[in-house]
Amino acid sequence: MDLKDIIIASDESHHLYKRKPMYSQRFRKVLKFHPPGFAPVYDDTGTYHIRMDGTPAYRKRFIATFGFYYSLAAVITQNGWTHINPSGEYVYNERHSWVGNYQYGYCAIRDKKGYYFHIDMQGSPLYSEKHLYAGDFRDGIAVVRLKNGLCTHIDPQGKIIHNKMFEDLDVYHKGFARAHERNGWFHIDVNGNPVYTEKYLMVEPFYNGQSLVHRYNGEVGVINEQGKWIHTVWIKEK
Fold it and tell me: For residue 138, which of 158, 122, 119, 153 has the smallest C-alpha distance?
């Protein structure tokens, strides 16, 4: 059974496969199934994960449960946020004020002092620095907002990759990242350098070599990876 073919019933009380209920149980709410085949559910006993036959995957109950990623799931306990394995066992002893989902074997968390950093699959910090914010890793690179308020990219060891700082920043997608400075949005390359000189009100990530952008004069169009305007989508009437 392909997990992608499983859908949630309209009342969110159970799962359907080929439009038929997968099990007889009904819950207050269910979420999507994720590998290795568990879904978060909520009923009168609390929140937990079920198998595809609707039976509980373990005995523990939590304040909230989220999907499994890299065979670990985020949960909220009475003492804070943490991760569990498919058996419902805690992966590490620490409790945080928030945890994300594991991506590429790393996870962004916020500690109880309000700082962000990344942990490994055992819950250990990847580096000693702490940040105002930290995003997910993609292809070994993550965005962090440093204590000076500016954003940059780091590697899994916490090392700043290109020493360029921006007011706002996105993760790399196909070799380019969206970046923002005082005069607008643009794209940067892997060295942190602008790909072109123009700044925009908004830019999207590149998709098959092209990006949708919004100019400050109201024009909406498409640019290529060299920043050349190649197609006008819409011009705002004055």
Answer: 153
What is the C-alpha to C-alpha distance for residues 238 and 227, in angstroms, rounded to an integer?
A: 26
Residue 208 has pLDDT above 80, yes or no: yes
Query: In this structure, are residues 126 and 117 in contact, taking their beta carbons and an 8 Å threshold?
Result: yes
* Dihedral sign from CA coordinates of 145, 150, 156, 159: negative
Amino acid at position 164, single letter: K
Number of domains present in the structure of the chain:
1
Query: For position 238, what pLDDT does the model report?
Result: 65
Query: Does residue 41 belong to any structural domain of this protein?
Result: yes
Task: Please report whether residue 17 resides in a domain.
Answer: yes
Dmax (CA) for the chain in angstroms is 63
211-224 pLDDT, tens digit each: 999 999 999 999 99
Domain coverage including residue 64 = 1-95
Q: Has residue 5 been placed in a domain?
A: yes
* pLDDT at site 83: 98
Q: What is the CATH number of the domain that holds 32?
A: 2.40.128.630
Sheet of 151-154: strand order equals 133-134, 142-145, 151-154
